[in-house]
């Protein structure tokens, strides 16, 4: 049976090893980043400036949560609600999960993928 003191000593040695490894990996990552910056002529504003922040905001566009059945317009539930949903029960306009997960695909492709999945599963 290993004693408490031995286990604590092992933990301390492991903590030191973790810190040393992390520091070594950080130094290597910084070195790779510096070489990429030099190679491609990247400036700090390209990464941390307003343009980079705006591009990142575009990538973070939210998924629609509500759909107007009449027009097909969608709303994520953020900000001012559009007229087609104002003063109405929002549950009537909720997009079901399976609709959002396949909404980018044409319906024919969604149907064919559904049947392909079933044939793979042996259904």
The H/E string reads HHHEEHH
- What is the domain total for the residues? 2
Instruction: Work out the helicity level.
Output: 55-70%
Q: For the record, give the distance between the C-alpha atoms at the N and C termini, rounded to a whole number.
A: 54 Å
Return Rg in Å. Answer: 26 Å
Oligomer: single chain
Mean pLDDT: 78
Low-confidence stretches: 99-112
What does this structure look like?
The chain has 123 residues and is mainly α. The chain is 59% helix and 3% strand. The protein has helices at residues 4-40, 44-48, 50-59, 97-102, 107-121, and strands at 66-67, 74-75. A two-stranded antiparallel sheet has the order 1-2. It folds into two domains: 4-59; 66-121, no CATH class. It contains five helices and two strands, in the order αααββαα. A hairpin with a 6-residue loop joins β1 and β2 (74-75).
What is the topology?
Blueprint: H1 4-40, H2 44-48, H3 50-59, E1 66-67, E2 74-75, H4 97-102, H5 107-121
Antiparallel strand pairs: 1-2
